[in-house]
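User: My instructor asked us to take a sequence, write out its structure as tokens, and then describe one feature of it. I'm not sure where to start. Here is the sequence I was given:
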Amino acid sequence: QVQLVESGGGLVQPGGSLTLSCAPSRWTLEYYQIGWFRQVPGKEREGVSCISSTDGNTRYADSVKGRFTISRDNAKNTATLQMNDLAPEDTAVYYCAADLWGDCSKWQQEPEYESWGQGTQVTVSS
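Assistant: Let's start with the prediction itself. The structure tokens for your sequence are:
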């Protein structure tokens, strides 16, 4: 099972930016679809973005389109979620997840993912 480690969360003011990173602890990221999810206490976890394992296809939730950008650097074995123009409603615990050979066709379906990170807190507040 691939173990994932997220980093980059923190406190930011509305309108600010944060960059989240996701890296596997022992395996190469290259063959995995990476999804980012977020969860607010008392609510279901929701899909934020996805990047496919092969052709770089990306998907975004409507709520983050135009503000968030997902990318991957296979040479650095890292996936990144760049978050701009953050708003208080973006406050959540953010998780990355990995799906071997995934193409993002079912990216918001949590059972598709074999491994999850521990989550990183993002708080948007003035």
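For the description part of your assignment, you could build on this observation: The chain is about 0% helix and 45% strand. Try explaining in your own words what that tells you about the chain.
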